[in-house]
Amino acid sequence: MAKAIEAYVNELRETRLWRSVFRSGTGATSLHRALAVQQNIFLHLFSVKMRRAALNVSVTWYLGTLSLATFLILVSTGIPLMLYYHPSVPQAYADMKDLQFVVSAGVFLRNMHRWSAHAMVLLVFAHMFKVFYRGAYRTPREFNWVIGVVLLIITLFLSYTGYLLPWDQLAYWAITVGSNIMSAVPLLGQKMRFLMLGGNSVNANALLRFYVLHCVILPLAAILFIGIHFWRIRKDGGLYTGEGKTHE
Amino acid sequence: MSEPKKYEAALDSDSRKTPVRVAFLTRRTSPHVRTKDDALVMTWPETLFRAAVAVEILAIVLVLLSLFWDAPLEELADPMQTPNPAKAPWYFLGLQELLHYFPPVIAGVLIPTMVIIALVVIPYFNINVEAEGVWLRDKQRRMRIVAIVVGVLSVLFLVLEVWVILIPTLLVASFLFLAAASTPDSPQTFRRWLVSKPLSFWIMTWFLIQASVLTIVGTFFRGAGWIWVWPWRA
Fold first, then answer.
1. pLDDT in tens, B110-138
2. In total, how many domains does chain A have?
3. Using CA atoms, how far apart are residues B226 and B100, in angstroms rounded to an integer?
């Protein structure tokens, strides 16, 4: 049975239709494996070969990979959540209750989004400290470190804007506290706060602004800078594996 | 017929195949050039398989968390009813803790801005790139500077009674002085390790410990009116 399935899959992979989609062809040769990466739009940011030493868990703890994973989980749970959510007062809160009591697996969806968001903030911080303590920011990777700092700030803003959306007491007062800090900026503070909230206090305008930032502007910015970040890893000579270490 | 040659001339940059070569090492050779372990593996399947395993483990952990632990949802937002204490998201609670001690323009604006600028410029200082142990050169002068900085900061935090900053600062400073009292050929591994650490390591470690302590205090040890509470007694 298993053999029959395998034969069938192999046959399928040789069909004209399949080969029109996956041009690299299939097989266990290095050429096919190289083409599988190089011919794929999602994988071609990788080089076809990587340094063996870079794959050891102790080198990176896979923190960058895991940060990306949380981002992907957040996108894939965030889009279904958008289907059940109206960014208006007080409907936003009623939608939370619907997620809790009406929507199938609504609680799980929201939990997953919430905990992944916290995990992403933690992982991005951890990634930064790991990169620092390995000295991986050094020439020629200094600019990628700067891109990383930008991504850290985007991550914090993504989490912060999402925090308001449930429109419960926790959300409302957390954002009130946070936005009050901003008004301490000399000269421009009040104006910046007004621009962010669309008013002098956290209200329906603020909810709409945070919703647009959270669901459109910041994710697009994140995708852009993640793309640059990954591309720079490749252009700066691959993952940093330490200097002068010899593995015999 | 002449005898076959026992050697051949070639141009090669693979240090393992042709270990004998002339190398010019300048002071500014990039870390990339110095990397010696260049054994390669195929990205597919070696790298992508490992990445997939890492992602799977993370996904399982998050799914389990989500199954057994519900995200908080409180009452409908009410501008007329301020909870006490009103807390920002956890990653800003370190800042909120700072606001308890310093005016908003310092705690909320100046310090975060300085942290971001400091993070951005890290790779652009040669002292960080060379990463030489802080006490290995010019020890006397550096000792004076460090002693003055630590002394001034300690007095400042003592006068302001900011224990949550004073204690971690003194902790990191004591290890820094222990490093100064150690030598690169000390019999203890830990002290040899301390000596090898550059200035950037000490500043970043201080920042990491400080940020963690402030965040934990703001999250768990602050109750109504931002008064100190013990979480296990609440």
1. 999 999 999 999 989 877 667 788 888 88
2. 2
3. 8
Distance from CA of B10 to the nearest CA of A (A): 24
What's the gap in Å between the CA of A102 and the closest CA on chain B?
A: 16
* Facing A36 at nearest CB: one of B44, B82, B108: B44
Structure tokens at B202: 């000490």
In three-state form (DSSP H/G/I as H, E/B as E, the rest C), the secondary structure along B44-104 is HHHHHHHHHHHHHHHHHHHHHHHHHCCCCCCCECCCCCCCCCCCCCHHHHHHHHHHHHCCH
Contact: B35, A93; criterion CB under 8 Å: no
Establish, for the pair of chains A and B, how many residue pairs have beta carbons separated by less than 8 Å: 222
**Complex ipTM value:** 0.92
Same-domain check for residues B96 and B206: yes
The Cα A41–Cα B194 span in angstroms is 46
Least CB–CB distance from A51: residue in B37, B45, B104: B37
Beta bridge partners of B32: none
Minimal Cα distance from B121: which residue of A? A146
In contact, A244 and A173? CB cutoff 8 Å = no
Asked if A129 and B83 come within 8 Å (Cβ–Cβ), the reply is no
Domain that holds residue B198: 90-226
The answer to whether residue B9 is domain-embedded is: no
Instruction: Tell me, yes or no, whether B116 and B62 share the same domain.
Output: no
* Both tokens assigned to B233: 């007694």
Backbone angles phi, psi at A49, to 5 degrees: -125, 150
B69 CA: distance to closest CA in chain A (Å):
8
pTM over 0.95: no
pLDDT score, position A66? 98
> Which residue in chain B has the smallest CA separation from A31?
B42
With residue A51 as reference, give the H or E element that holds it.
strand A49-51
